[in-house]
Specification:
227 residues; 4% strand; single chain
């Protein structure tokens, strides 16, 4: 489990803020820089802390502890470099309009549209590409995937880099709504963790239900493993 997504959120946000405030470049230039900075930091984290323990006993606990430590270190580094004061990241699309006395920001609509588009792209990537199938295979059964010549270590690195890029993008897009500070990534990480846990519980329940139904329909068949 990777609990450093909040740190990656902060890395992408502060990278974009630095480009805008120090280099005086527009936010459209800072956006890809923030995304790339978060992806690069995530891959570096993989090389130093995660790759050495892949496939070893206690891998899950080791990555959990390492990513929590990285989150704390990133927050401390942000305080030292940028100070704890709140920062302002400009929106990509400024302005708002009112519908039925409800004020809607154009940046908010951009966030919604980007989220839906990325959801579809990630789904297509995981479902129809060789790399996506490799990711699903490694997540379901790492040893079997390795026996099928799937590069497990490289797949882990690709997943972490992609997740870092998405977290960095989220940081740049959401920072205009919430003033940027070294702990800005904490709340999004907690919310994402809650969604992941409940989503996993729903899938687990559905899998168990389907397994029970198939076993009931075929009495001589042993139930499939679930969760």
């Amino acid at each position: 489990m990777n609990l450093a997504h909040g740190a990656l959120f902060v890395v992408g946000s502060y990278a974009a803020y630095w480009v805008v405030s120090r280099l005086n470049l527009p936010i459209l230039v800072a956006l890809p820089i923030g995304v790339l900075a978060a992806a690069a930091f995530a891959y570096l984290m993989h090389l130093i802390f995660i790759r050495p323990v892949i496939g070893k006993p206690g891998f899950d606990n080791s990555t959990l502890i390492a990513t929590v430590g990285i989150s704390i270190a990133v927050s401390a580094a942000a305080i030292l470099i940028f100070n704890p004061e709140y920062k302002v990241v400009p929106p990509i699309i400024s302005g708002n309009f009112t519908v039925s006395e409800v004020q809607i920001t154009k940046q908010g609509l951009l966030v919604i549209a980007t989220s839906l588009a990325l959801f579809g792209l990630v789904y297509l990537f995981l479902t129809y590409t060789r790399q996506g199938m490799a990711i699903r295979a490694v997540s379901q059964q790492q040893e079997a995937a390795s026996l099928m010549s799937i590069p497990v270590v490289r797949t882990y690195g690709m997943v972490i880099a992609i997740s870092g890029a998405l977290a960095g993008l989220a940081g740049v897009l959401l920072s205009p709504f919430f003033f940027l500070n070294p702990n800005s990534g904490f709340n999004p990480m907690i919310q994402a963790l809650i969604v992941t846990i409940f989503g996993g519980l729903v899938l687990c329940s559905a899998s168990s239900n389907l397994s029970w139904r198939s076993t009931t329909a075929s009495p001589g068949r042993s139930p499939a493993s679930s969760c």
